[in-house]
Amino acid sequence: MAFHLPFTDNLALVQEINPTPIPNPYWVGFSNTTADLLGIEHVNGLPNNSEYLEVLAGNQSHIGQNSFKTYATAYSGHQFGSWAGQLGDGRAIYFGDIHGQEIQLKGAGKTAYSRMGDGRAVLRSSIREFLCSEAMHFLGVPTSRALAVVGSDMTVMRETPETIAVCTRVAPSFLRIGHIEHYGHNQMWHELGLTLDNLIEHHYPNCHNSPTPYLTLLDQISLRTARMVAQWQSLGFCHGVLNTDNTSLLGLTLDYGPFGFLDQFQVDHICNHSDHGGRYSYHRQPEALHWNIYCLASAMLQPLKEELKRVHGIDGEDAIQHIKDTLDNYNKEYAKTWQTLFRLKLGLTTECDSDLTLLEALMQTLHREKVDFTLFFRNLSEGLDVPASMNHWYATYQERLSLEKQSMDTRLEGMQTINPKYVLRNHLAQHAIELAQKKDFSEVSRLLKILENPYTSQSVPESYALGPPPDLTAIPISCSS
Ligand code: AMP
Ligand code: MG
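# adenosine monophosphate complex -> structure
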């Protein structure tokens, strides 16, 4: 089922390439639930078949008699608002597909698209991607998944020498806006059409019912993206690098780098220390992704215009206006989803005209008082007191609650299913990484297990649900990975 680009000698599209082997691989982390998704049998937290260690290290491209075609793809993109030209899978190598899921080994060595890079990923960033992919999935956010992290003592140079790892990631498709931009920019109309048709065929089949399938495809990608980012906002998640080459065509959270969950709420929080202008700060994420959707529209302008002319007989400025009107749906979908999610976070099951004012006042108060985002909503759902500095807002909230018909118990129960107790706070990831760097991988497994049930109180130390201790509030997270 999974989508494949056609194999060709043209390196502007795809390169058939083997992973580069790594010395003496060892398991760092393994996700049983992703293994289940792929039908990989496992026992005691590891695959039954011991061949998987070499396979997921990139040292072996077959399991038993089954061999995999391994390849890298070209894409281009806009980075921090500027055209960056050709990029591509510089260190992620496709590794066949199972059960309609594409598999990629990230950090598996150089490809034709590595440019100046070494094709590797360090242990630190691989653990972060592994844990956060899984955490987001269990929070209910559309995302690529992660199957495993395999480490090796081989080192590469970043700010300092660091050991490498390979993270196996999994998604129904890893296609990005950057792929479409690549074909559009290079006027590869055949490949562009083929890719759009494949997307419709495998991932957006209801576009077939539309008289203008490409426009409907654009609309649906934009709606999925709007819903995804509304979920991020509702969880206090910052992606960090929302370039078009990191933006999925399936509305999945993709390419985990310097991401972060907000501890103290600041609407202009920047989680990526290289993002000096704050282009991808928390409150600008929705507009950043809308900008990316405009890039997508502009890359597929030729087929869109052809379609509009053929079907509706509209052309020129009229066609452009028609496409722009479609792109406005993003804002409506985002606003609608955002309000629904935040109403649910507050246990409001009905709609009231004053709700938006209540929500805006909440955001302002959380920001002014630098309240811990996750903890605030979780405490509210457990019927605990809010900080005294929030009493004014809380009184308005209590008044609003009197219009609700649900009993308090039912309301709190519902709120606990949308306000997580456990998210992958930076200091928790950092602790697991520091132990892993000393070859103790137990904290990676432990954190994964906790994050698999983010909405349920677990018998683990309460510190897993709390913000960082004062000395760990500002761990710098750079782009280096
Ligand atoms: P990112 O900022 O991680 O999304 O990466 C941007 C581009 O740089 C993508 O084309 C990556 O494949 C490529 N890249 C990042 N790190 C490396 C590396 N160590 N080796 C080769 N390519 C890389
Ligand atoms: Mg990327």
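# post-check
Residues 245-246, 255 surround magnesium ion (ligand 2) (CB under 6 Å).
The first strand starts at residue 14 and ends at 16.
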